[in-house]
Specification:
Length: 197
């Protein structure tokens, strides 16, 4: 389908034509799926079939909601095709989803448990007090994190809580990747020693 046909279909959607909306979904469905997968892979993020389906539907909901507000924003300037516009909205939708997933994981405290396992404290002791001891251990880890130098603390926060790769953390902190690995190793070792004292 050419660019003019895409624009006519888009205008039909804005006008509320049901057939135009059906044609629009059929026309851009594969593009949306491919863009979702490509964005996850580019960001090195895990995903499953359910994520793909949910995000695919979310993209089209965003395009058609509020009187097709997103479609109305398309202007086609500088040679921007309808396909490019759809791709851009899809990428933004995936990134919004990833940010929300990270925030949800942080509120559940999963990152503290990950840090528990990294410093070798993941095995719960047997007996009825296991749950309380695990909670106390997590509190101790949080307390000991505050004793680390600010740079070490920032690196661990970005890596474990932010879910960023060490390569990305190194770029953000303007240090070499080797230096990032060294800081992480040193910080984890220091935490491990503190936790076993």
């Amino acid at each position: 389908m050419d660019h003019q046909a895409d624009r006519r279909t888009l205008q039909g959607c804005i006008s509320g034509e049901e057939k135009a909306r059906e044609a629009f979904v059929i026309r851009f469905s594969n593009l949306v799926y491919q863009t979702i997968q490509g964005t996850f892979k580019t960001k090195n993020l895990p995903f499953n079939r359910l994520d793909l389906e949910d995000l695919h539907n979310t993209v089209f909901v965003r395009l058609f909601e509020k009187g097709c507000r997103k479609l109305r924003q398309y202007e086609g300037r500088n040679g921007c095709s309808v396909s490019t516009w759809i791709r851009l909205i899809t990428i933004r939708t995936v990134l919004d989803f990833c940010r929300k997933a990270k925030r949800d994981a942080l509120t559940r405290g999963e990152k503290t448990e990950m840090l528990d396992s990294i410093i070798g404290m993941q095995d719960d002791p047997p007996g009825q007090c296991a749950f309380m001891e695990k909670k106390e251990r997590s509190c101790l880890i949080q307390k000991e994190l505050q004793t680390l130098p600010p740079r070490d603390r920032l690196l661990l926060k970005l890596h474990y809580e932010g879910g960023l790769s060490l390569r990305d953390v190194a770029a953000i902190m303007k240090i070499s990747k080797a230096n990032a690995y060294s800081i992480k190793h040193r910080a984890i070792k220091r935490l491990s020693i503190k936790m076993t004292e």
